[in-house]
Amino acid sequence: MPETWLVVGLGNPGPRYERTRHNIGQLVVDELADRRREAFRAHKANARVAETWSRPGGSRLILAKPNSFMNVSGGPASGLASYYRVEPDRVVVVHDDLDLPYDTIKLKVGGGHGGHNGVRDVAKALGTAEFPRVRVGIGRPPGSKDPADWVLDEFGATERQTLPILVSDAADAVELLVDGGLLAAQQRFHAPRL
Fold first, then answer.
1. 96: closest CA among 184, 147, 28, 21?
2. Distant-in-sequence contacts of 11-19, Cβ < 8 A, 24+ apart
3. Are 102 and 159 in contact (CB under 8 A)?
4. Mapping DSSP to helix (H, G, I), strand (E, B) and coil, where does residue 83 land?
5. CB contact at 8 A, 65 and 29
6. In terms of DSSP H, where are the helices of 22-145?
7. pLDDT tens by residue, 117-161
């Protein structure tokens, strides 16, 4: 029986937030579904899901986008984990990270939430912080701009030029994490880019 992984892309619902920095986790999950030509459907856990595979003969993937706002992502994430019987160590949370420069991807398991309310709520709902995260760097705002406003802004013109590559790389990171393990993914994505 292949193992099942739940991949949760954090973000906010609705067209107003679709292309904002805070929604990069959902953009990555969209990319994973697009690669597999899978469509999302409504799920009773207040989320949209696409059921697929990491690769032929690989792990089962449940790709998920909560319908809730970022700060209350835990309910949908834990509801889906319970429904699909996925343990926290197989719940991959993909999210934006202010503390990483734009165009940077880091992976880790456990640790603090770094001030990210979505990650905090998922940890609270799962009853543990010991779940894998794919952290996608969006950088800090320039000058004295409020970080809360920065994450809810759309990507700037310069960022939009490389955003498809960043989203694709983050999707690659999820796939390598699932199929090759955390260390292999860290070795590839934590190395300086040439």
1. 21
2. 11/65, 11/66, 11/70, 12/69, 12/70, 12/152, 13/66, 13/67, 13/68, 13/69, 17/152, 19/154, 19/155
3. yes
4. helix
5. yes
6. 24-35, 74-83, 117-126
7. 899 999 999 999 999 999 999 998 888 888 888 899 999 999 999
With bands split at pLDDT 50, 70 and 90, how would you rate the model's confidence at 193?
A: low
Structural tokens at position 101: 């420069």
22 classed as catalytic: yes
Give the Cα separation of 114 and 11 in Å (integer): 16
Q: What is the pLDDT of residues 43-57, one digit of tens each?
A: 999 999 999 999 888
Q: What are residue 190's DSSP bridge partners?
A: none
Q: Are 67 and 85 in contact (CB under 8 A)?
A: no
SS3 51: strand
Say which of 22, 43, 95, 116 is annotated catalytic. Answer: 22
Task: Indicate yes or no: pTM above 0.90.
Answer: yes
Domains of the chain: 4-189 (3.40.50.1470)
Helix H or strand E encompassing 97? strand 91-97
Return the SS3 of 87. coil
